[in-house]
Amino acid sequence: MIGLISEIIYRLIYPILIIFHKSSGYSLEAIKLKKGYTNLDNKENSKVVMFHGVSVGEVNAIEKLINKTREVFPEIKIVVTTGTNTGQEIAHKKLDDTVNLVTYFPFDTPSCVKRFLDNIKPDIIFIAETEIWPNIAIECKKRGIKLSIINGRISDRTYNSYKKLKLFFKPLLNKYAGIYTQSTEDLNKFLSLGTNPDTTIRMNNLKFDINAPEVTFNFDKCGRVLLAASTHSGEDEIVINVYKALKEKHNDLKLIIAPRHLTRKDEVETIVGESGFTYGLRSNGVDSMSDIDIMILDTMGELGKMFAYSDISFIGGSFNKTGGHNPLESIIFSKPVISGPSIHNFKDIYAIIQNAKAGFVVKNEEEFIQIADELFSDNKFYAQTAKSGNDVFKSQQGALDFVINILKNEL
pLDDT at residue 10 above 70? Predict the structure, then answer.
């Protein structure tokens, strides 16, 4: 019945669907792929594992898992699907050299789903985070395809909606081979919706399965350091204002500004130069801040290591509409993070960090100053925040090996 209804609706609204997708920037080729007209070269009849991440955040979350899958299972075919154009772009950019095919997830109608599965012939499908597509679930169950949710999570809002429609979602969710969640809270939400307790398991969060980069250079920070990482246009002025306010109270404080895009180097240098503070460029060989207040980190590949030298990190892209960048690069070194209010690219990570009191999201410049001042002034508060970062990392790791072990059992 679900399939029939969805197919009728699809055919009725098809012209509107096409107009919507074209107006949203999807090419005719992308729309064709969403209809299931894709192709995987599999003359060897190898096992096929498919990973789906709807957009940028989900693709980033499963990138390391996909690379590890290729390393452990070099003989299999790997397919990656996304639902959005931005997801496609990042998947092609990061994974083209690793996987056999990057394509679009099909429209969830019987005809599109069957066409897609006929062309791909997957043995295992992993859906990152939480997307419940009825026709995919039904058809995979019919064909014996192992369909699972990994890194699963449900927001409170989505959970409340699913709960009202539990009679609809319970049978669908029980067609999944496994539902593997980020947290105990998410686990309990799924269980309350009627999922099988034998196959609903906490796996932790894939985004936390990273290692701290090896710090191979010596750097003399000569005081405490506020690191402004991955700043965007308009944020450097905020950082300078915050630094001015903090410097009045914490005279030993230094500032490192790392613009997200090195094409902004001259712009950032102008802003810093007009601030009245002494400064230097990392590209000019600066390896000590003994004679300067601010260093502009204008080199490639060093930001990840520079977090080791920071005392507090501000994560850029969060005082504009960018959506923030990954705060874990700082947390992995047990360094507290502060971000502006725009964090939608990593909202799940920030929720974990904030809940653990390992980092802070501020609304404005004044709150930024207040939190940073408290961290620099109160050693006990700073130490507890840093410890919380270390603890939350340990509690969230292990997800990557969890999924690899599933594959070892199934392939």
Answer: no
Distance CA 286, CA 275 (A): 19
Contact (Cβ atoms closer than 8 angstroms) between residue 126 and residue 136 = no
Alpha-carbon distance values, 1 to 5, 117, 134, 140, 214 (Å) = 6, 20, 11, 16, 56
Tokens 């109160």, residue located: 378
- What is the token pair recorded at 316? 């850029």
Q: Provide long-range contacts, Cβ within 8 A and 24+ apart, for 348-351.
A: 348/57, 348/129, 348/153, 348/182, 348/205, 348/207, 349/205, 349/207, 350/324
Identify residue 170 by its one-letter amino acid code: K
Task: Give the confidence band of 26 by pLDDT, cuts at 50, 70, 90.
Answer: confident
Dihedral angle over CA of 208, 210, 211, 213, nearest 10: -120
pLDDT, tens digit, for every residue of 342-401? Answer: 998 888 889 899 999 999 999 999 999 999 999 999 999 999 999 999 999 888 899 999
Distance between CA 212 and CA 229 in Å, rounded? 16
Please give the C-alpha separations between residue 357 and each of 246, 293, 334, 369, 385, in angstroms, as whole numbers: 22, 29, 12, 18, 6
Structure tokens at 197: 């307790």
Number of H helices, E strands in the chain: 17, 14
Maximum C-alpha span of the chain: 74
List, for residues 132-190, the tens digit of each pLDDT value. 899 999 999 999 999 999 999 888 889 999 999 999 899 999 999 999 999 898 999 99
Q: Is the pTM of this model over 0.85?
A: no
Tell me the domains of the chain and their CATH numbers: 2-209+397-410 (3.40.50.11720), 225-395 (3.40.50.2000)
